[in-house]
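#structure-requests
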Amino acid sequence: MQEIITPEAPPARSTFAVIWPWLLAVSTAMVSVAISAMLIRPLGGLFLFGPIGILALLALVVGFLPSLVSLAVSAVGFGFLSFAMASGNAHSDFVFTYLSRLVVFFVTGVVVILVMGSERRLRQRAQAERLLAERSRLEAERAAAAARASLAALHESEERHRALAEALREADRRKDEFLAMLSHELRNPLAPVRNSLYVLGRAAPGSEQAKRAERVIERQIVHMTRLIDDLLDVTRISRGKILLQHGPIELCELVYRAAEDHRSVFEQGGVTLGVEVPVRPVWVNGDGTRLAQVVGNLLHNAAKFTDRGGRVHVTVSRAEPARACISVSDNGAGIAAEMLPKLFDAFTQADRTITRSRGGLGLGLSLVKGLVELHGGDVRAESDGPGRGATFTIELPVGEPVASNGAASVSREPHRCSRILVIEDNHDAAASLAEALALGQRNVRVEVAHSGSEGIAKARIFDPEVILCDLGLPGMNGYEVARALRADSAHRDRILIALTGYASPEDRKRSRAAGFDRHLAKPLDLKTLDRLLAELCGPARPPERVSAA
């Protein structure tokens, strides 16, 4: 039996052997696409022989496509090579020749792409470094500018703090000097007062020693009162608490009276005082009391800084049609040029130590400046230097003249009130005031109470015509006493006079609102009190005549 021989079938190819070239091509294409995405740049010329080289050169000129074209061709070639090798195609030589050229093209393209990619990466890195350097430079400049601004602000803040600290040190130094001066000036009058009291206790009444001691006590009390008043007035001016009572003032008469009031001070110091006023009156609109205080302070200052045998001259004139001028000149100690700009500052003197010989708190000229400015005027000081005297000049706006009606003032016989009640918690002050009120007066009875409730009880029994009441009483104060007395029909019409160390306009308004008729500041001027009692009690009644039987 003839054996049938069938041709042997070719061995079956594995699936992996078929698809691995395609996987390689796709993977290579993906890598090439990724590289191309980063290296998008014309590759320049690429010399290859044959039609494939020309096509590759055109692809390289386009820029992005060379890697895609080469890889696509490579993928096709590798696939075809795989197929040919597997099938044993007779054209394998052609395929290998084609693929060899294709591999050369592919490798050359990859090398060119890598080289150009490296160059681009280097250029991008250099550009990034330049940008980073520029950014760093700008940031450094901004940081330097901010640092310079911070340093300038810090320096300015330090300067402000240094100036503030210096001002605080200066203020603290001036405060310490002022407190030392205040202690010195207040203690100075106490020594002669105490010595004079010792003399009065041992000298014969009415003797020359007793009279001299009395004059010393009176002068020192006036001096202490002036110091305290100046201190309070400067404080009120600085806080805007001074209220002026404006009215027409004849300046010549005001200056003449102020000079006469201070003439005794000049006589005691051996200083000649001269006054020169024009024939025609000079009118200003102002507060007569405050203007007299201004002139008095200038006179007191001139007397203080002029040695024995010196001269002080006061003049009144018209500086211009709308200004009145008061000038106080002396040939005394003079003023240094560096002191002139700050002469009117509070607590300022040419010699501000406690060893100075002139005395005073350095408030007088500051008070003058404040009061003059409240009147719309100005004040200035001039001096040629130490030992060459000084001149103080005040200019005030001229006011409208007041015509005199020629009526003579009617003088009245003072009537001394017969019953006076003093309500004062300070026993010494109450006793001394009661003695002063009764001294030299006929038919005057004075009773004393030391508390508000005691004063009301004594008023109901004693039935006084005038009640002098301290406001700062313990327990029931003076305001409550006044309201209680005004509420009592038996004492509703009695004269109530407030006695207090508080003398501001607000204090006066408060005492008047409580029911007081008058408000007197301590220490009392007994002459002023006598005039006030004569005014409030009315004219004297003529004595009754008894006809003979």
